[in-house]
Amino acid sequence: MTSKIVYFPGCFANYYNPDIGKSLVEVMERNGVEVIVPNTRCCGMPQMANSNIKGARKNFDINVKMLAEAASPGYDILTTCPSCNMMLTSEGQEFFESDEARLVSSRVYDACHYLSHLAARRALNTNFGRINMRVFYHNPCHLRVQNIGDAVSLMKLIPGLHAAGISTSCCGMGGSYGMKATNYARSVEVAQKVWEEVRASEADIVATDCGGCGLQIQAGTGARIMHPVTVLSRAYAHFHR
Question: Which of 5, 31, 100, 163 could form a disulfide with 64 if both were Cys (CB 3.0 to 4.6 A apart)?
Answer without folding.
Answer: 100
